[in-house]
Amino acid sequence: MKRGFDLILAVLCCLIFAIPMALIYWGVIFFLGKPAIFCQVRPGKHGKPFKMYKFRTMTDARDKDGALLPDSQRLTKFGLFLRRSSLDELPEIFNVLKGEMSFVGPRPLLMQYIPHYSPHQARRHEALPGITGWAQVNGRNLLNWEDRFNLDVWYVDNQTLALDIKIIFMTAWKVFRREGIAAKDSPTMEPFADANTKPAKKSDLT
Predict the structure, then answer these.
(1) Most C-beta atoms within 10 A of its C-beta, which of 62, 112, 160, 204?
(2) How far apart are CA 188 and CA 88, in angstroms?
(3) Do the beta carbons of residue 74 and residue 58 sit within 8 Å?
(4) Three-state secondary structure call for residue 154
């Protein structure tokens, strides 16, 4: 039932957002350059890797040594608009069509995080990753990692179609109000290291 719901909604979204996605695609090329799509390997259900698609929100600007500049310096006004409106997430609809993601589920993070999860945290991979999720409508990037993972695992244990529909409506309201887009004093969420250590640098992971 969940897969059928995802497919129907994904097809409807493709029809509704076809023109906006085309405009955003060319806007990204104009303001940020090619490629317009940010493609990164993320862990799916049971940790199986897949390529997740998003619109780019950052430039590839580097320092004199060839290292990428900090996120705050690479995030343009146009990229910030895409993030705050969550329009950068639209290409993930194609991941839903491919069966790699669901509209609702724990957000797919980075492959490098997997070895650092506790057994409890790793349970977030028992469900398909989602474009939105229970953690996203209960704080999103304003949450600390412990709370975020606890909400993800709660969803895994309590997922129903009715809950998914509720989360989708809550997401629409959150996007409209632009709530929880970024962590305090940071354009992106702090990277996760493990339960007992602090990360050293940021990454485009939201």
Answers:
(1) 204
(2) 14
(3) yes
(4) helix
Contacts of 76 (CB under 8 A, 6+ apart): 31, 32, 57, 58, 59
Report, as an integer, the average pLDDT of 2-17: 96
Taking the model in full, what pTM does it have?
0.84
Half-sphere exposure of 173 (CA within 13 A, CB side): 9
% helix, strand, coil for the chain, step of 5: 50, 15, 35
Domain residue ranges of the chain, discontinuous segments joined by +: 2-177
- Determine the Cα angle at 174 with ends 155 and 14, to 5°: 85
User: Using an 8 Å Cβ cutoff, are 53 and 94 in contact?
Assistant: yes
SS3 75: strand
H/E element, 88: none
Q: CA angle, corner 98, sides to 94 and 101, nearest 5?
A: 80
**Among 37, 39, 35, 67, residue whose Cα is nearest residue 52:** 39
